[in-house]
Amino acid sequence: MGKLLIVGTVAFDEIETPFGKTDKILGGAATFIGLAASQYNVESAIVSVVGEDLPQAYLDVLKAKNIDLTSLEIVKGGKTFYWKGKYHNDLNSRDTLVTELNTLADFNPVVPEDFKDADVVMLGNLHPSTQLSVINQMKKRPRLIVLDTMNFWMDNALPELTEVIKHIDVLTINDEEARQLTKEYSLVKAAKVIQEMGPKYLVIKKGEHGALLFHEGKIFFAPALPLEEVFDPTGAGDTFAGGFSGYLAATEDLSFNNMKNAVIHGSNLASFSVEKFGTDRMQELKKDEVNKRLHQFKALTQFDIELQ
Ligand code: AMP
């Protein structure tokens, strides 16, 4: 069984979409990644920090999926990372209304001894220095290091972000973030620039318009499954990253061809995540539902064209 080390926020999220709003609910990059990766045959652990204000029931959600939480630090008297966002009517764009780092502001991550030899490290959205510290604690170079980030860190910690991405294999970001990072409008040009910055593989997520995988001169495209209803896109990117890295850790095949499959697995799981608020859909998701939708994915993209 492959070992997957996950780093990222475990958070309080407060979300407003055209369909309603929530109070503070369970969210965070590592949470969505962990729930998605639990669909695969992997041993996983989360490195993160929360405050004492996070209800035990939220941690139990992760424990129930057999995710190792020994390195999830609970700071006495501390407050958990809090993010509040509001989606526009098209659900493709959102405004971040509040980001409170709280305990995350001076977090020193500690990688659990058992995971210092993890096969795959999934560095979820978090301060880039924290992401780098985790890489530096590994006993041997993991077979694959995947990193996800967002505009917040490009705005607030660009030098640190530029440093950490020199050490990774796969970067996953969305189209606007790829443009912000490279100052290139064309995603093909942006992909070239990013590959020169370090990662040999790049995934550009385009929300309801699917995802692109770049490697050397090659490009692979996976659509997003057209859904009747999208309820709350929060965590779709992290769910994608969890499916992508979880599938690769489980299959232990890191070829470009298998990475294409990983992109499909990530997109497939993301299509569930958006169907309910927060983590609700991912908590209840069953293997047979996942498999059924993979068949739909295959049918959606398969065609028989005669080529000369
Ligand atoms: P996504 O919709 O995939 O971009 O991820 C949304 C999740 O990212 C939410 O659950 C938030 O708690 C978390 N999040 C939002 N802003 C940040 C940030 N600056 N750093 C780390 N995690 C964040």
Describe the structure.
The chain is α/β, with parallel strands linked by helices. It is built from eleven helices and 14 strands. The strands form two sheets. Strands 6-5-1-9-10-11-12-13-14 form a nine-stranded mixed beta sheet, with helices on both faces. Strands 2, 3, 4, 7 and 8 form a five-stranded mixed beta sheet that branches. A hairpin with a 2-residue loop joins strand 13 (about 210-215) and strand 14. The longest helix is centred in the C-terminal third of the chain and has 18 residues, at about 255-275. The protein is globular, with a radius of gyration of 18 Å. The N and C termini lie far apart (about 45 Å). About 45% of the residues are buried. The model has no long low-confidence stretch (mean pLDDT about 95). The site of adenosine monophosphate has 17 residues, from strand 2 and helix 8.
Helix and strand element order? EEEEHEHEEEEHEHHEHHEEEHHHH
Rounded to the nearest angstrom, the radius of gyration is 18 Å
Integer average pLDDT? 96
Low-confidence stretches: none
Q: Give the class from helix and strand content and strand pairing.
A: alpha/beta
Ligand inventory: adenosine monophosphate
Number of helices: 11
The largest sheet, given as strand count, sense and whether it forms a barrel, is:
9 strands, mixed
Kindly state the number of beta strands: 14
**Helix percent band:** 25-40%
In angstroms, what separates the terminal alpha carbons? 44 Å
